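stuck on this:

***
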Amino acid sequence: MDSVTPASAVAAPPDIPDQRPPRVWKFWGTTLWGLFIFVAMFLGQLAVIIYFVLRQGGSFDVAQAIRVVGGGLTISLSVILGLPAVLLATWIAIRPTRLSLTDYLALRWTSWRNFFTGLAALAILVGCWDLLSRAVGREVTSGFMGDVLKSAQADGAVWLLVIAFCVAAPMWEEIFARGFLYRGWSESKLGVGGAIVLSSLAWTALHLQYDWFFFGEVFTIGLLLGYLRYRTNSLWLTIVLHGINNLAATIQTFWLSGHG
């Protein structure tokens, strides 16, 4: 008599690994997810502003609200809170591609030779803009930076401002522009050149606090950082150079404003 093998004794078929290759978002996927990341950043910063406005209590005064929003402490904390918001949103955007954040964003270091070459190029570019600014009779530093610095000093939050402008902002701005946007757009029909230009424009648009002259400077710095991102395949390089540039601008503003 033939024996019947119980169903429970039948070995389950082995799990078949997912053979789908990792992918990168192309133009429209990058653009739409980029908008998602931008909105997350905006809401993260807005939460800080709303908190400080509501903290005033009493009747809502528009003039007072504007002063709070433009305060050094408020701006510093809102910029800092933008970092976790961008990191979370970027992780959500990259997760369906089955690539790690490190691989997708090129979060790797490069050689010290590339670092010093990039630093020299950045110093020359910013120096040329400073010379041009003096030649046309403009202030070397923006009025916005000077006002925020004065407000941060009044709030006793200069150290927080330095962390915001020199650490948090370079990290989330580079992750957004030279990390996520550049990666996807460079692998679309735009190619590397188009991705560098378009991501630089998107990055420049984040700096609405500046006038047309500083817009030009920010855009050209974006082009340089985009080129370095392409040549070295290192986002950490552009993050560090971006932070050094912001630190130098902060020190320069501090010095020229007579607060040294």
The CA atoms of residues 102 and 125 lie 29 Å apart.
